[in-house]
Amino acid sequence: MKKFILVLTACLFVLGISLTAALATDPPTETMTVTNYGSKDAVKFAHKTHVDAKIECVTCHHKATAPDAAADQYKCGNCHKAEAEAGVPAIKDAAHEKDTGKCWKCHNSKSPDVKKELKCKDCHVGA
Asked: What tens digit of pLDDT does each residue of 117-126 get?
């Protein structure tokens, strides 16, 4: 009986690992053009480059609950408000966490309160 339970547990473990791998979604392979505030700010964005750099999908898609949900676009301000509430960090705190990589969302000419303006091309090669 103990042997049966051990074998059954091992089989369920392997099945769980297999299902997790099967449900995982690979990032898009094509390079896409991303714009912030118009075509002059356009940059090439390759998911593969970021995956290879070990930047996890949840860094940007942290509200995705299903493998295909990461494709949905989320705006940070939908959840992160000016002040922290209900365990959700304030937008400024969330934006300045390590490795968010979204500096340009605030550091731009459209945000007059921000001290340093950044352009997408400060980090990315132009499209």
From this structure: 666 666 665 5
One-letter identity of residue 58: V
CA 40 vs CA 35, 97, 104, 106, 109: distances in Å: 8, 28, 14, 18, 13
Q: Are the C-beta atoms of 45 and 126 separated by less than 8 Å?
A: no
* pTM for this model (two decimals): 0.38
* Ranges of each domain in the chain: 27-122
Identify the burial level of 74 via C-beta atoms within 10 angstroms of its C-beta, where 0-12 means exposed, 13-18 middle and 19 or more buried. Answer: middle
**What does the alpha-carbon distance between residue 5 and residue 117 come to, in Å, rounded to a whole number?**
62
Whether the Cβ atoms of residue 31 and residue 112 lie closer than 8 Å to each other? no
Please count the residues of the chain.
127
Q: Predicted confidence band at 23 (pLDDT cuts at 50, 70, 90)?
A: very low
